[in-house]
């Protein structure tokens, strides 16, 4: 069964290319042009990803995002907007969004980000099932991580790195892929940023007794090694 994407955008000249592009990728795509229609949709049907414009005619997209999370929507939400400021990005993530793209954007970048969101959220159910044995548990929708009943306080990038590693548990994830999925495919900064993030992530997981270990594979990348009870 194809994964379903809901496009929430009131401008037809933006919505139609998005819908066509995503349908060519094999997704089941629906389009609505208001915030209330979006809320009605996610409350009655499952959507794996919601692509949400902020400038809707009936309500602000941030309010749509917040209400969707409050009513239990657990899929991925990607905000697209002409508001490119850092403050808007931070507020969007605080309201429960998983990603944020500023207009104008390329369709190839949109496709890559949708794929990355689906990789992250597809891990949610299997991760939640291991939450009662003292193991690692990720609540993707709330962007929170737990070791048993204890929450592990992570930054946004630490959370995203861990989420990719958990989705590929016991497999090596290359440095290149981590940089592309967590930062940006066009990131030109030092990859030492990844090493610093991994170092902090290790310390935080170890400090609360998480059994899973982030292991460096020299010259390749990193692997999350799980405890036997998670197998």
From TrEMBL:
<protein>
    <submittedName>
        <fullName>Response regulator</fullName>
    </submittedName>
</protein>
<keyword id="KW-0902">Two-component regulatory system</keyword>
<feature type="domain" description="Response regulatory">
    <location>
        <begin position="4"/>
        <end position="118"/>
    </location>
</feature>
<feature type="modified residue" description="4-aspartylphosphate">
    <location>
        <position position="53"/>
    </location>
</feature>
<dbReference type="InterPro" id="IPR036388">
    <property type="entry name" value="WH-like_DNA-bd_sf"/>
</dbReference>
<dbReference type="InterPro" id="IPR016032">
    <property type="entry name" value="Sig_transdc_resp-reg_C-effctor"/>
</dbReference>
<dbReference type="GO" id="GO:0032993">
    <property type="term" value="C:protein-DNA complex"/>
</dbReference>
<dbReference type="GO" id="GO:0000976">
    <property type="term" value="F:transcription cis-regulatory region binding"/>
</dbReference>
<keyword id="KW-0804">Transcription</keyword>
<dbReference type="Pfam" id="PF00072">
    <property type="entry name" value="Response_reg"/>
</dbReference>
<keyword id="KW-0597">Phosphoprotein</keyword>
<dbReference type="InterPro" id="IPR001867">
    <property type="entry name" value="OmpR/PhoB-type_DNA-bd"/>
</dbReference>
<dbReference type="GO" id="GO:0000156">
    <property type="term" value="F:phosphorelay response regulator activity"/>
</dbReference>
<keyword id="KW-0238">DNA-binding</keyword>
<dbReference type="GO" id="GO:0005829">
    <property type="term" value="C:cytosol"/>
</dbReference>
<dbReference type="Pfam" id="PF00486">
    <property type="entry name" value="Trans_reg_C"/>
</dbReference>
<keyword id="KW-0805">Transcription regulation</keyword>
<feature type="DNA-binding region" description="OmpR/PhoB-type">
    <location>
        <begin position="125"/>
        <end position="226"/>
    </location>
</feature>
<dbReference type="InterPro" id="IPR011006">
    <property type="entry name" value="CheY-like_superfamily"/>
</dbReference>
<dbReference type="InterPro" id="IPR001789">
    <property type="entry name" value="Sig_transdc_resp-reg_receiver"/>
</dbReference>
<dbReference type="GO" id="GO:0006355">
    <property type="term" value="P:regulation of DNA-templated transcription"/>
</dbReference>
<dbReference type="InterPro" id="IPR039420">
    <property type="entry name" value="WalR-like"/>
</dbReference>
<feature type="domain" description="OmpR/PhoB-type">
    <location>
        <begin position="125"/>
        <end position="226"/>
    </location>
</feature>
